[in-house]
């Protein structure tokens, strides 16, 4: 069966002002990376609002991984940051506009060679990025904002997941409810 949206009533609600959910980030290391969530932005009043973030501050080079919304032209799209070989790389989606008051399954993946962003199981952009994932279990992580605050998401976030590998297009379509559900292995879910 097909579904559009997360489990009703279970999503976290963020006010776009100062809400932040500190997260005990699981140790994510391996040959790849995936961060995924269902989001329903109420609006885009906060430029560069964080869906999830593991960082010591807001500048690019202070991020280990991050998925946010950002304005690109007349649309709001995903932005993905990932630290590889000690340098944070940034990918801004070239397609896959997010809409206010509409649920979307969003994801960011890295397979060891390319960073990609996804909306509802469809790729929205990619960037060459080779090397090894830089990790630090002592760096704070958060849902709905920067761990230190200041980039609050305004809307709902549900089903946040991290993987130590890049999920395939098929697996991302499963998470987006666009195909028959199956198992996505090596998952760490924030609870």
Account of the 3D structure:
This protein is mainly beta and 191 residues long. 4% of the residues lie in helices and 45% in strands. The protein has 1 helix and 13 strands; from the N terminus they run E-E-E-E-E-E-E-E-E-E-E-E-H-E. It has one helix at residues 169-175, and strands spanning 12-15, 21-23, 33-41, 49-55, 63-72, 75-84, 87-92, 104-110, 114-119, 122-128, 141-143, 154-163, 187-189. The strands form 2 sheets. Strands 1, 3, 8, 9, 10, 12 and 13 form a 7-stranded antiparallel beta sheet that branches. Strands 2-11-4-5-6-7 form a 6-stranded antiparallel beta sheet, with no helix packed on it. A hairpin with a 2-residue loop joins strand 9 (114-119) and strand 10 (122-128). The longest helix has 7 residues, at 169-175. The radius of gyration is 15 Å and the shape is globular. It starts with 11 loop residues before the first strand and ends with a strand. Residues 180-191 have low confidence and may be disordered.
Short descriptors:
191 residues, six-stranded antiparallel sheet, disordered C terminus, globular, 13 strands, mainly beta, seven-stranded antiparallel sheet
């Amino acid at each position: 069966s097909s579904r559009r949206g997360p489990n009703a009533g279970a999503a976290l609600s963020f006010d776009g002002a100062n809400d932040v959910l500190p997260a005990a980030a699981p140790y994510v290391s391996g040959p790849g990376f995936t961060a995924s969530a269902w989001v329903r932005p109420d609006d885009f009043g906060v430029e560069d609002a964080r869906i999830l973030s593991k960082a010591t501050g807001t500048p690019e080079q202070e991020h280990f991984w991050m998925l946010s919304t950002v304005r690109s032209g007349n649309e709001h799209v995903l932005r993905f940051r990932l630290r590889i070989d000690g340098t944070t790389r940034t990918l801004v989606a070239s397609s896959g506009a997010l809409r206010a008051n509409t649920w979307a399954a969003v994801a960011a993946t890295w397979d060891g060679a390319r960073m990609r962003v996804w909306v509802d199981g469809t790729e929205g952009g990619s960037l060459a990025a080779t090397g090894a994932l830089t990790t630090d279990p002592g760096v704070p992580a958060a849902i709905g904002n920067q761990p230190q605050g200041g980039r609050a998401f305004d809307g709902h976030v549900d089903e946040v997941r991290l993987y130590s590998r890049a999920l395939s297009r098929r697996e991302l379509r499963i998470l987006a409810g666009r195909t028959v559900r199956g198992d996505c292995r090596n998952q760490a879910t924030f609870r």
